[in-house]
Amino acid sequence: MDFRHLRYFVTLAEQLHMGRAAETLGIAQPALSQQIRALEERLGVMLFLRAHRRLTLTQAGDAFLHKARLALQAAEDAVQEARRTARGEQGAIAIGHVSSAMFDPTLPALLHTFHQRYPDVNLSLQPASVNDLLNGLKNQSLDLAIIRAPHGPLPQELESRLFLREALTLAINEQHPLAGKTPVALTALAQERWLVMTDPEGIGLEHVVRELCRKSGFSPQTGQRVKDVATLVSLVAANLGVGLVPNSATVINLPGVRFLAVESNPESELSVVYRRFEKSAAVKKLLAMTPEAT
């Protein structure tokens, strides 16, 4: 049995007239009659009573009509679901990100615009470390990730591009002697206790900070290593050290913390990392809307 037989049956059951049903279906009346008889033989029941050139549904036919309608509707729904998914209009996207990516308005604005255009695509956000984000992409628990550069060599199946670039600013306690000076030279901080990220060597914000300090002629003395920028700023509020953070982190308004410009205007970059041969139409649509892609 195929859906063609169901469609023939439902049309005839609704019109109860072989000629009109055949015309609606665009087939010859004898062909429709033959298909209905073949369906009845396959089911082993009589679906229609035929008397005095009139058709009526049997009890079996009436019961079958209800289920046949549901089956045809389910098939149509499946077709529409497949087409909408293929167009990227529905589905799900798992987005990983370093926590600081949400401080800048760029990512929230992108998600808002995408949701407005494609409300049936479910967006899930997962903050995580750089290592966990890359592992999530490799094991396909994530569809794309926003990672603070540099991210190091990527597996062959992944690629990246610039998402945004922003200035770095110095987070310092308001009681520090340099708290009232701006811009601050990094050389003036050579003896400070530095709060740095727990990024792997050569990756992320920690690498950027260490390179900036190296170019300024010193290696930073690590006070504490932290997993996220918010914790770093909190430790600055506790006067446990200083640190460089993305300028967007100034939204963390904690008492006792000053954010100061730095000489030479250092910057930090966020990259979007994704699978090179992405199959999801929804993910492709989101990638096409990222800042560096528009």
TrEMBL record:
CDD domains: PBP2_LTTR_aromatics_like (cd08414). The keyword Oxidoreductase does not apply. Keywords: Coiled coil, DNA-binding, Transcription, Transcription regulation. Residues 1-58 form the HTH lysR-type domain. PROSITE patterns: HTH_LYSR (PS50931). The keyword Transcription regulation applies. SUPFAM superfamilies: Periplasmic binding protein-like II (SSF53850), Winged helix' DNA-binding domain (SSF46785). GO terms for molecular function: DNA binding; DNA-binding transcription factor activity. Pfam families: HTH_1, LysR_substrate. This is DNA-binding transcriptional LysR family regulator. It comes from Enterobacillus tribolii. Residues 65-92 form a coiled coil. Belongs to the LysR transcriptional regulatory family. It comes from the Bacteria. GO terms for cellular component: protein-DNA complex. PANTHER family: SMALL NEUTRAL PROTEASE REGULATORY PROTEIN, TRANSCRIPTIONAL DUAL REGULATOR HCAR-RELATED.
